[in-house]
Design goal:
The complex is a heterodimer of chains A (about 170) and B (about 400). Chain A has about 170 residues and is mostly helical. Chain A has helices at about 5-30, 30-50, 60-75, 80-85, 95-100, 105-115, 120-130, 135-140, 145-174. The longest helix of chain A is centred in the C-terminal third of the chain and has 28 residues, at about 145-175. In chain B, helix 11 (about 330-345) runs antiparallel to helix 12 (about 390-404). In chain B, strand 4 and strand 5 form a beta hairpin. The chains are: A mainly alpha (about 170), B alpha+beta (about 400). Chains A and B meet through helix 1, helix 2, helix 6, helix 7 and helix 8 of A and helix 1, helix 2, helix 8 and strand 10 of B.
Chain lengths: ~170, ~400
Amino acid sequence: MPIDARKQHVKQWYQLYSDDIYKYVYFMIGDREQAKDLTQDTFLRAFDKYKSFEAENIKGWLFRIARNLTIDYLRKKKPLAFFFDTIPALKSTDATPEQIYAFNETEQEIFQTLEKIKRSYRDVIVLRKIEGFSIQETSEILGWHESKVKINLLRGMKALKKQLEKEAENNETS
Amino acid sequence: MRHLEDELDENFESMQKKVALTEEEHEDMIYHLSKEMDQRYSNSKKRMFPYKYYVSISVAVLLISILVIPPSAQFLTNELGLQGKVPFLSIFLGESNLDREPDFQSRLIEFHEDEERKDVLLALVNDNMSKKEREMFNLPSEWEAYRIKLDKNTKFIDENGAEITKEKFQLHDYKVNVWTKESFQPQWSKVLREDGSMELISDRIPIYSATQIQLVEMSDEEYLAVDYAYQEGEFALQVYLGEAFDDPKRSESILVEVSEVMDVTMAKLVSVGYSREPSERKEALLGINSYPVFLLYDHEKLVHMTTDLEEILNFLSATDMKVKRLVLEESNEIAIFRKAVDEATQLPGIANMASPNYRFHLEGESYSLWIDEESGTIMNNKESHTIYSLTKTSVKEINDFLKK
């Protein structure tokens, strides 16, 4: 197919889905500039892999690409931590989300706590609770059974709440 | 606990609204995206032969094989009872080695995304998985799979034995017969990490170079089954756009219409494929003669083919007699539903309910509605884990509307 049409399609996908993809990557890695790069890479990868998107739902396919790139990025950044699935996402030198996106205090706490829980929990919480994907869509993006999505969401939310309570206690005692 | 969960949900909603790219950031990204796409396109035109790496490997393998392979090949051919049928050396001397049976039959799956390792494919012989599990990219704990390295000497042939180009070969989603350069040993490999996470350890999969790969004839039934839905009660839609594929405006409007159909029938339509046109074989088998065309499959056959997407929507709506689609047009009708949604109160617990009685669209959102004379429940289809109870007044107003 003409290259212009292919470019045009990718640009349309960008218009439709770049915000959602950016949010996902940002919540996964907590680094604004890097999230922008990975969002852009997602669409470039879609351009490169254009032929292979047949038999796919485009948004889900783009999210799978974004997730793979995010995992690759985290893996390169912290290979050992990746192995143990406990990569702290937030870069200490990055401007805080509070500064960038005017998060209030609670949101800031949630954001930071989210970055401390297991990557697989964070993945499912971001997709279900922030991106608003259904269980079925999430299972397609993550390549998990729907039951695994449900269990990980329950466990992830539990872990998030526990961590938030722990942080609150720490703040009170200090 | 419930209280905290509600609070978290509210916070998530507020956070997701705040995290956004600015207009300048978008402009900047679009500019770079565009530039990078142009560059990649011109690079791909220049890139003639990305096989340097494999050529040097082939030379090394050739030298080693001449020195080492004959005694072991002799041993193996004796072991396998293939004396005289496996002229191992001939591969390395450039003769064809295709008289023998293929080493295995499998599906080939693209394995590595990066350019340098693109020519290593995953040959999946057996994974004991269902089609759905496979297409969801689930991984079994153990499978019979091999990494297959293509190189410039790999010969591609069609079902009838005629040589075809690699590009033509790649257009097919067939099973294939594979002949390996090295002596082949069937083997099941454990590829997952012991902790149960879905990280594939690819190094555990044996690697072979392919001498020859042949497309395997598929029956018409098998050929079409690739597009079927996974299981009973589900549907898969395949859209062939034809020339509209090259027209961004037309293809976008079709894309939007298809996503609306998916939205309304989300529980039933499990996958949507979107491509320019079918293979010649599929075109002939299904008698497709005009585009854009929409093909709806259930788990065992093509159930509807049409050039009018509305028919697909009607078909899907009709298959579930319980679910009716409400079309809200008048402003007073919209107001009734707007009020019902606004005043509904969230119910505790995770929703796990039967098919709804109705579906409706309101201000860009799609909702499911369960209603009888006494009570009513709604769910935003995007938030299928949460349901809301309607007020008594709304139940009455909606029932009155439905009776009309």
